[in-house]
Amino acid sequence: MCIRDRAYVFGQASTSDLAVTKTVEPALVLAPGVLTYTLAYASNGPAGPVDVWITDTLPAGTAFGGLLSAPPAWSGPTVNGQTLRWYAPLLAADDSGTIVFTATVGSAAVSPDWLLTNTATITTTTDSTPDNNLSAATAILQGLQIAKSHYPATVTAAWDFWMYIDLTNTATSPATDVVVTDILPVGVAAYSVQPGQGAAFDGVNTVVWNLPSIGPNSTVRLSIKARTYSTQAGNCLTNLAVADSAQAAPPVSAQDTFCAVSYTHLRAHETVLDLVCRLLLEKKNKTKTEKHSYQR
User: Fold this and answer.
1) Of 26, 164, 224, 234, which is least surrounded by CB within 10 A?
2) Count of other CB atoms within 10 angstroms of residue 108
């Protein structure tokens, strides 16, 4: 089901040819967000229409934001709920122009397919060329946001660490048939990979989750436990995750980069956090010693 925003222009004139083109920016919008609509009209003659109205009905969950520009011939808009109306008492036979306005996309914007389709129609009782009376513009309500992270902050080569994916459905309708794919970086030991519940690992470098649904305004966390090879000490690795759904919005992706340290820097029973604290303390003490020696 699409949210449709319909615009109508009614004119009274003999043998007039009215045409309309409607566009929207951006093509992809988050809720809350703002859409900018441009309604381009043209009177191609041979006669000029009179008493022309433009009526635009905003989709549910959106609201009129403001008028950015309109030719002097037009008055309005008058706003009545979701309905906007402009009026021109007379257009010349060769008149053309654009009306530009914004609409805010609120958190209540609901569309099962996340499509916000605005259809503009221009009509007159004596239109000689009706084929150019219809134009549609579609924006997509982006529902998915993705973030990547890892734990611990310092990854030790050949030691366990965790990669996390936080996937949020920002829309007010469910995201269905969600597929999340995590591409493990070269250097992660395949034998050590332990994906979280519901995931499938291909045994090489790809982990996939198939989630039936993510509820409105909900976040799920997915995890992978793994180790790098010991030879990766001193190297930085980048982990990529991509998520898609049955809805119209395009896939989203996120990356996380971590650098592995050598386990030989760790003392017996010392954690990675202990190592970091010790190295910082040693650096601080070394600075103090150097400063004291210089003063002497």
Assistant:
1) 234
2) 12
Residue pLDDT, tens place only, 136-171: 888 888 889 999 999 999 999 999 999 999 999 988
Residues 44 and 125 in one domain: yes
* DSSP characters over 141-200: E--EEEEEEEESSSEETTSEEEEEEEEEE-SSS-EEEEEEEEEPPTTB-GGG-EE-TTEE
pLDDT tens digits for 191-248? 999 999 899 999 999 999 999 999 988 999 999 999 999 999 999 999 999 999 988 7
Question: The whole model's pTM is what?
Answer: 0.67
Q: Can you read off the two tokens belonging to residue 295?
A: 């003063």
Cα distance between residue 161 and residue 256, in whole Å: 13
For residue 191, the enclosing domain spans 144-265
What pLDDT sits at residue 174?
87
Whole-angstrom distance, CA of residue 2 vs CA of residue 113: 7
What type of residue is 197? Q
Handedness of CA 287, 289, 290, 294 (dihedral sign): positive
Looking at the DSSP bridge assignments, the partners of residue 165 are: 148, 222
